[in-house]
Inverse folding.
């Protein structure tokens, strides 16, 4: 699988920023003040027919819209397969079902939220909408959900004659997860301005949500955004040294040196307890790279690396770093050719995604 | 890409047995796990019987060899028990385990614990024993917990494609090995019964209060079940190097989407046909080389019709013997694919075809009928195992004798 180019030929993303229009790039920034960042969706009617729209839950609407934006962007109406990743799926709908079931003591429970709550509901819905009979899978592995989906698509492209895969990620900022995970200090105790996430040296992060889809192929499309070179997941590294070793091995396999990295997309979450490995990696190996961060714009969730991939793809294509994501810029700007996305979720799921500028 | 994939171990726990031997004895003696619920606390204990494992969570902890009250969900415990048996059977060395991938499936994860402690978990002022289940409703939690228990970290993935989930982990394991990412993969799924699934399927009106009757004209729905099952998949190189005798070979797999309806299969089984056909193609086999099909056969009106028509379309007038083992174990959702993968391998190893319990009168729409009686002494070369789910997800696996 090494040294293959996987082209991102289209994308669509609905996030807490106005990202659904691919012609705009973080020109206006929305801040949040209650530790929860909510997706800003376009008019769904432009993407989903009214009969279908009525039947769909909020997250299915957002997810399907992101998929349709991606399909329109790539110009590929029917991909060969659809792979999605999510951490908590439709927990909001599942919780509605559980609440009703408990309140009514298991009598006369309605099926809607049960049906819409299965983790593969979105990949199934996208397949149904696009009439896509091809490969279809859904990964639900916390902070690896999106990475596994991307990796699966890359393997599929390597295996046979299939040319185009739609890879998606989605997670919803839902109340049950917020309340339950507040027990383990996953979210900040005091409300902060989301844009100041990295200025507070306190435990926890902000809750976010996003649905993002990417059209990926070994053949370069006309609207190609960037090239994915590789993805690597590291589960619970015992030490920084272990994470460094994985990074070395990953870059070596992709014939890239740390000095070749022009842009580091850093998935720190604003929780110093979990961020220190990624901050140390930056200081140790990527002094010469410009650093951008993104979780102050989208919040933290299992598939936040999908927002990071969108950001990297956009910077590589537009050769422009919006001020809202700039963290440490190198003084003499050079063309941004190689970008590395590093991410962590709960200090347990670490990942690297290597991107190249399309040439 | 053409590297061969061998099965060197398997493990299983269901309502018909705590390990592979017990499951096999039940299968050949027509012993089913269907009955009233005793362990799960629900008002439907008697009116919605299911295939429940009659062991408390504490008893499961003992079998799994883990400490009590440490926040292991029932789903995780079933997974640990089955995966440990699989690794023992494969005689995996500590080094092999450390470098293996863990690919596990579930549809509910720790929903059973979430529904039990739903309000206390969301109230920050309440404290107590329930706190060990903080954040265990997440489906990825069970595989991370299992991986930590086994000391595995090379590649951990969790699949959730409804009732085809664990078939997809087996397919993923094979593909990771063929792509050179892994030499050994522990693949399977685990699912505990919950009020959530019982009330969910009940609200969809596809639960049968009586013992389910796959492919019978009188079928009225499925029975739920719980269980876990895992296979150890190893590359040809690894098997040769370690001098192991493989138990079976995974020769084919197919995953497609029916793209017909959110929760129903297409009437003609378009997706099922494509998945079975793809499994044959990856194995470079033709339909006439299939010796037995372990069907999805949930006993819902919709599934059995759709699956039956897809089988007729693919095999024409030469349909191999087929049966559904769902009356034994119930529908174990995400675990069904790997449980039936183990049954398929047991069928190959013991040269038997398991009976389709409760079949009496054929369906009007089908010209084929499942095997009613146990067939022994029938060498099986290639066995197809089907798993279909909500969201149009359909997968088919092909196991072959070695």
């Amino acid at each position: 699988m090494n040294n293959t180019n996987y082209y991102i030929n289209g994308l669509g993303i609905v996030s807490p920023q106005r990202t659904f229009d691919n012609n705009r790039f973080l020109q206006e920034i929305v801040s949040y003040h209650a530790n929860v960042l909510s997706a800003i969706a376009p008019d769904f009617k432009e993407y989903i027919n009214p009969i279908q729209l009525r039947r769909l839950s909020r997250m299915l609407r957002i997810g399907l819209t992101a998929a349709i934006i991606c399909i329109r962007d790539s110009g590929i109406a029917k991909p060969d397969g659809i792979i999605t990743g999510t951490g908590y799926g439709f927990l909001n709908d599942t919780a509605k079902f559980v609440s009703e079931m408990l309140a009514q003591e298991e009598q006369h429970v309605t099926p809607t939220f049960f049906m819409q709550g299965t983790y593969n509901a979105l990949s199934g819905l996208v397949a149904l909408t696009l009439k896509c009979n091809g490969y279809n899978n859904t990964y639900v592995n916390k902070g690896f959900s999106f990475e596994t989906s991307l990796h699966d698509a890359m393997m599929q492209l390597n295996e046979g004659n299939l040319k185009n895969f739609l890879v998606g990620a989605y997670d919803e900022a839902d109340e049950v997860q917020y309340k339950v995970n507040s027990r383990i200090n996953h979210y900040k105790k005091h409300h902060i301005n989301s844009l100041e996430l990295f200025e507070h040296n306190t435990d926890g992060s902000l809750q976010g949500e996003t649905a993002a889809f990417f059209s990926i192929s070994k053949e370069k499309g006309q609207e190609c955004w960037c090239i994915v070179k590789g993805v690597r997941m590291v589960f619970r590294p015992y030490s920084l040294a272990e994470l460094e070793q994985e990074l070395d091995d990953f870059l070596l396999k992709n014939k890239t040196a740390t000095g070749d990295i022009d842009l580091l997309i850093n998935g720190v979450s604003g929780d110093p307890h979990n961020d220190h490995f990624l901050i140390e990696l930056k200081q140790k190996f990527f002094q010469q790279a410009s650093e951008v961060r993104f979780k102050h714009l989208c919040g933290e969730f299992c598939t936040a690396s999908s927002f990071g991939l969108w950001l990297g793809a956009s910077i590589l294509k537009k050769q422009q770093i919006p001020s809202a994501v700039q963290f440490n810029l190198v003084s003499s700007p050079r063309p941004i050719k190689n970008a590395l996305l590093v991410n962590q979720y709960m200090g347990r799921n670490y990942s690297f995604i290597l991107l190249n500028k399309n040439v | 890409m053409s590297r061969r994939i061998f099965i060197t171990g398997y493990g299983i726990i269901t309502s018909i047995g705590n390990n592979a031997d017990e499951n096999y004895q039940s299968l050949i003696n027509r012993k089913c796990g269907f009955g009233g619920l005793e362990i799960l606390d629900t008002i439907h204990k008697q009116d919605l019987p299911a295939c429940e494992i009659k062991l408390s969570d504490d008893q499961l902890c003992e079998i799994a060899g883990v400490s009590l009250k440490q926040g292991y969900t029932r789903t995780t415990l079933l997974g640990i028990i089955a995966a440990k048996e699989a690794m023992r059977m494969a005689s995996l060395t500590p080094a092999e385990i450390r470098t293996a991938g863990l690919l596990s499936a579930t549809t509910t994860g720790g929903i059973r614990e979430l529904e039990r402690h739903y309000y206390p978990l969301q109230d920050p002022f309440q404290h107590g024993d329930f706190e060990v289940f903080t954040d265990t409703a997440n489906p990825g939690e069970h595989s991370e917990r299992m991986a930590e228990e086994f000391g595995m970290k090379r590649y951990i993935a969790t699949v959730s494609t409804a009732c085809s989930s664990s078939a997809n982990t087996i397919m993923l394991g094979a593909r990771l090995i063929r792509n050179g990412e892994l030499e050994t993969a522990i693949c399977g799924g685990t699912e505990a019964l919950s009020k959530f699934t019982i009330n969910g399927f009940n609200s969809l009106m596809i639960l049968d209060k009586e013992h389910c009757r796959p492919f019978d004209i009188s079928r009225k729905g499925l029975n739920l079940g719980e269980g876990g099952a895992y296979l150890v998949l190893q590359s040809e190189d690894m098997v040769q190097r370690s001098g192991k005798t493989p138990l079976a070979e995974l020769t084919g797999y197919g995953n497609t989407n029916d793209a017909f309806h959110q929760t129903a299969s297409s009437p003609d089984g378009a997706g099922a046909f494509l998945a079975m056909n793809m499994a044959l193609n990856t194995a470079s086999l033709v339909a006439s080389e299939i010796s037995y099909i372990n069907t999805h056969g949930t006993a819902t009106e919709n599934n059995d019709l759709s699956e039956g028509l897809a089988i007729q379309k693919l095999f024409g007038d030469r349909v191999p013997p087929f049966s559904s083992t769902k009356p034994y174990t119930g529908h174990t959702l995400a675990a069904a694919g790997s449980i039936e993968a183990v049954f398929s391998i047991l069928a190959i190893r013991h040269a038997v075809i398991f009976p389709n319990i409760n079949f009496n009168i054929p369906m009007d729409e089908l010209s084929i009928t499942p095997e009613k009686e146990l067939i022994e002494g029938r060498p099986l070369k290639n066995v197809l195992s089907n798993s279909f789910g909500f969201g149009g997800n359909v997968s088919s696996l092909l196991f072959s004798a070695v």
Notes: Residues 186 and 215 of chain B are 32 Å apart (CA to CA).
